[in-house]
C-alpha cells in the first residue's frame, strides 16, 4: 500500500475551494488498476461542459433527404441530463425511386461488439456512405451557451417520414438509437448504449448518400490555480518531506 500519494492528494484537497471538496475525494488505486488507465486526467472542477451530438441522414437518388440530430449538453448548472431531437425533412418534387434489388447478407454479430463499431455494406451502384466519430477538447473561460430549440426525448420515440424513408429516435436499454428505414433503398443506424457506439449502413439501391456522425465535446476551464493555492499545496507537501516520507 502506497501511503505517500494518498497523503499528498489529501493535502491538495485541503487547499481546494469548499465546493470542490465534496467532488474530489482522494482514493487509492492499486497498481493493477493504474496499469489499465489511459489518456489525460484533469481535476473535476476543470470540466465545465460535456456534450454529445449524433446525426444521421439519408439522401436518395431524387434528392429527398431524411434524418435526425440528437444532442445532449451537461454543464455545472445542469440538474438532469436531457437528450434533444431535431428531425431533418427535405423533400424534392420528383417521384420516388424504384426499390433496390441488391441483397446484403450477414452482419448478425454487429450488435454483440464492444467499443466503437462501424460498418458499411452496399449491394447497389453509385452509393456513398460515411461513419465518423470525432472528439473535440478545448479550453475556455466559461461554458458555451446552450440554446435548445428542439424536442426533448422522453420515453416516447420521435419519428419523421418523407420520400426518402422514415427516421426514428428511440430511447431504451440504457442508451439511445437513431435508425433510418430508407423505403427499399436500405437502412442506417447509430446506437449509443452499454458503453459502446455502433454506426451501421446497409444499402441495396443506387445513388444514395448516407452519413452517420457522432461528436463528443469537452470544454476545460483554462483558469490556472492562484499563486496562494499553489503555495498552500507546496507548503503541506514540504511538511511530508520533513516527516521523513
Q: What's the order of the H and E elements?
A: HHHEEEEEEEEEEEEH
Helix tally equals 4
Instruction: Compute the CA-based radius of gyration.
Output: 24 Å
Mean pLDDT across every amino acid position: 80
Kindly give the count of domains. 2
Strand-helix topology:
Blueprint: H1 3-14, H2 18-21, H3 31-34, E1 47-59, E2 65-75, E3 84-90, E4 116-122, E5 128-140, E6 151-152, E7 158-162, E8 165-172, E9 175-181, E10 186-193, E11 196-203, E12 209-221, H4 227-242
Parallel strand pairs: 4-11, 5-12
Antiparallel strand pairs: 1-2, 1-12, 2-3, 3-6, 7-8, 8-9, 9-10, 10-11
Describe the structure in brief.
The protein is mainly beta and 245 residues long. Helix content is 15%, strand content 42%. The chain is globular and about 75 Å long.
Explain this structure.
- The structure is a single chain.
- By secondary structure, the chain is mainly β.
- The protein folds into two domains: 59 residues, no CATH class; 177 residues, no CATH class.
- The chain has a six-stranded mixed sheet, with no helix packed on it. Strands 4-11-10-9-8-7 form a six-stranded mixed sheet, with no helix packed on it.
- The N terminus is likely disordered.
Key phrases:
245 residues; 2 domains; 6-stranded mixed sheet; 4 helices; 12 strands; 42% strand; disordered N terminus
